[in-house]
Fold each of these.
Amino acid sequence: MSYLDELFSLRQKTAVIIGGTGELCGAMAVVLAQAGAEVVLVGRDQEKAAARLSQIKTAGGQGYFIAADITTRDGLQKLLTMVIEKSGQCDILINGAGVNAPTPFLEIPEDEYDRIFAINTRAVFLACQVFGKYFLDNGVSASIINIGSMSGVIPLSRVFTYSMSKAAVHNISRNLAREWATQDIRVNTLVPGFFPAEQNRKVLTPERVDQIMGHTPMKRFGKPEELAGATLLLASDAGSFITGQEIIVDGGYAAMTI
């Protein structure tokens, strides 16, 4: 292999991508597969999974789909058991499932709050517990990539509960990075800027798009494939000394003030 192939190679690795049927995590799954990893797409939509797996196969990769309840410990334990039975191992975990709602703060009902936190925060917490125990018990040199949000870094309007839930994800990533560093388990947060996807289309009104563009030096939205470099860096040995970090891919949004 060439130097770059060896540095970023994921051959003989298995990556579990929770939320892998979505647009951004689906694109990340393709990248991991192209780097040599066997990818496991976890989600609810088998049709979307089939389309993504076809893309992965066309790109020369390999993977499969598992439908799982990621909001319960039992569901995640069953997921891990199925992965180990089928693949024999797990080396990379990506927590990327997410939901959003544009409800004004004073009108947010408790059931909406609970639903967003169950998927965006509780599921990440439980997945890190279940998979983290497997990594620790088996001495796996692992990478956990939690998908954060720009709203977890900089307060944004109209996504109050989503922002709170993602800020918690950023925090648990840093805490686990510190906790597991000596066991060679790296935990980082990948922070996409504005990439049109299922969970944010509800709030992307023309007025809001103008505001976003006015605050983004590159003056455009991100493309899912532009997460490739950061994904490979965090998943591979190229990022072996990177842990507890927020890797922001945002076209300069976080660097902008006035």
Amino acid sequence: MGDMTGQVALVTGGVRGIGAAICDRLAGRGVVVAAGYSRDKDAAERFCEAHPGSSVHQGNIGSAADCERVIAEVLDQHGRLDILVNNAGITIDKTVRKMTPEDWDRVVHVNLSGAFYLARAILQHMLDRGSGRIVNISSVIGSSGNIGQANYAAAKSGMFGLTMSLAQETARKGITVNSVTPGYITTDMTAAVPPAAMEKVIARIPAGRLGEPDEVARVVEFLADPDSAYITGQVYAVNGGLYM
């Protein structure tokens, strides 16, 4: 493993769930973590207490202006940004017949456009430095689709095209761009699913259980490592065999 001490990472949605696990993993490697969040100020405060020297940045990643502001804040505060993890996402689940254009636009703007806005905002900095790691957190739903999640599935599937296109544009510039696609992971989102429905989900997973946030985070850590410089444009599934 390469030395990551002193590097700086921005992890959107980094104060809870998978994002917090990613921050913990990277911090354990000596990375200074900057966590993006939308509304949960209590979680942001707990994050700062757990990670001295870190920072939190509030914003709406569905807004290009907010994304540019957050990138500028991180660069102003830490002087560099080596790793961008586009992890934040939302769901507004309805069948297509009941889904409004606003429901569609909101999910696509946050889950897909936000990754583009942030990558675009940091790209010149990484190009100037000749190095960088971008990891896009997609979802098994982007591969398989799901009833009532056409907007979420389309956005998460769109991340694959964004990942591979940006990877091709930057492969000779010292920048890698990859995607990780978690399956059903133990988070606040899955905790809200009724037990009877969750039992049916688990019955479909060959591994017979939900995944843990750290099981996703370790793949992100691997892709962010300096020694992973020859891996780009790839999609890594972490789903217990749910989708093969």
Amino acid sequence: MATLLPMEQAGENARAPVEIEVPAGTAWPLVLAFGFTLMFAGLLTSASVTVLGVVLAAAGCVGWFHEVFPREHEETVPVTFEVQRITTERRVVERVPVAPDLVRAWLPLETYPISAGIKGGLAGGVAMTVLACTYGLFEAGSIWYPINLLAATVYAESLKLGPAQLNSFHSDSFAIAVLLHGIGSIFVGLLYGAMLPMFARRPVVLGGLIAPVLWSGLLYSIMELLNPLLASRINWIWFMGSQIAFGIVAGIVVLRQARVSTRENLPFVVRAGIEAPGTIPPRAGREKRS
């Protein structure tokens, strides 16, 4: 394979190569990657998808190996030498100004307190509960129907309830459902409080619409493992609607809370020497001595 000489030597050496050989383009790596994707996708769908993935992966491996063995497939590319000259009309060097209050850029500079995430999570949990109970009234004529289904996630006794018993009140299932829903709402609310300052534009749309849709898609793939009873009776349209209601209400409540400065910008952290060296402005005494 020919080698490309440095630019300085190419201008002096008349015998410098004008063409180089590079590996030829091939689509076999894409076939191999697609085959592996289908192999693992078949674990969640059907065995036929896995078989197709194995066939494509094997074909991709064989085709890719043939690009190298027994002889490398290469193509010739012409070489064009260009000398680039960088010029400027500026007479002075511009320097980036350093903020007087901050010795280091921390992003985000402000965030929401923990209490904001808790309030948003609890408010979103209430909105989600209202929609879930409304669905229970339309579907089974009882607000206890979705509550008993939720309790079946960790409570084995709820799995033994018949169709008629799912519509009645059970104190143990009710307590477990409230505990699960409360803990989950608080944790998701805290996550929203940490994520929303990172979204400069329309944070409620990103945190209240896009995130619930992605979360619903994840639960759709693992619901059979988490809660078989809920997976057999769930209405995904109502479920996604309740998730979106949670996200919008929680996002609005969090955005209405006052922001606080991040811990990294507190004075004691600056004095601890965590700031980046070279960005601290010189003291007056140093300027006089220099």
